[in-house]
Amino acid sequence: MMGGRAEHPELWEFLEARHPGEVLSGTVAAIEPFGVFVALDDGPDHPVFPGVGFVSYPELSWRRFAAATEVVRVGQCVSGELLVFDTTNLEARLSLRALQPDPFQAFAEHTAVGQELRGRVTLLTSIGAFVEVADGVEGLVREPAGERRAGAGTTVVVTGIDRERRRLTLAWRCRPGPG
């Protein structure tokens, strides 16, 4: 635990005055394996961390990425929505993706179960294959991938759309047999 109000009164005062949903801006101060620290424009310095703002990896972007450097870089100015004041670490937990349109919702608006889509296999796992069917939108095919490889183009059929959980289920398009 970082300490109480008496140890860091300016930091406590700043963070307690913030409200969830508020937009805070700052500069990316450090990228770590567990998240990104942001030095807030209007906030005090943090006594331990490189910034008072903190963004976990899932809150960086709606899109899949392998490394945080695909989304942000040290020295970059960013804005994020305040999720919560983390009283244990004395930091403002931020979401960059909250300020971006969700590509899944736009996709789901114009897609129906049974629809055929072209896509690209992005990841093969033990539970199935992930196929990107639109920019920032992937679905899961829970069937053996057969000869398909990551990076390969393919055609799939939409079998389910869960807008609330942002999940798209797909099936490989069946190839017609000989006539």
Low-confidence segments, given as residue ranges, are none
Helix content: under 10%
Q: What's the level 1 CATH class of the largest domain?
A: Mainly Beta
Please tell me what the overall shape is: elongated
Q: Assign the structural class, choosing from mainly alpha, mainly beta, alpha/beta, alpha+beta, or little secondary structure.
A: mainly beta
What's a concise summary of this model?
The protein has 179 residues and is mainly β. It is built from 2 helices and 10 strands. It has 2 domains: 9-99, OB fold (Dihydrolipoamide Acetyltransferase, E2P) (Beta Barrel), CATH 2.40.50; 103-172, Beta Barrel (OB fold (Dihydrolipoamide Acetyltransferase, E2P)).
Summarize the helices and strands and which ones pair or pack:
Elements: H1 9-16, E1 23-32, E2 35-40, E3 53-55, E4 77-86, E5 91-95, H2 103-109, E6 116-125, E7 128-134, E8 137-141, E9 153-162, E10 167-172
Parallel strand pairs: 3-5, 8-10
Antiparallel strand pairs: 1-2, 1-4, 2-3, 4-5, 6-7, 6-9, 7-8, 9-10
Structural overview:
- The protein is mainly beta and 179 residues long.
- It folds into 2 domains: 91 residues, OB fold (Dihydrolipoamide Acetyltransferase, E2P); 70 residues, Nucleic acid-binding proteins (OB fold (Dihydrolipoamide Acetyltransferase, E2P)).
- The protein contains 2 helices and 10 strands, in the order αβββββαβββββ.
- The strands form 2 sheets. It has a 5-stranded mixed beta barrel. A 5-stranded mixed beta barrel has the order 6-7-8-10-9.
- A hairpin with a 4-residue loop joins strand 4 and strand 5.
- The model has no long low-confidence stretch (mean pLDDT 93).
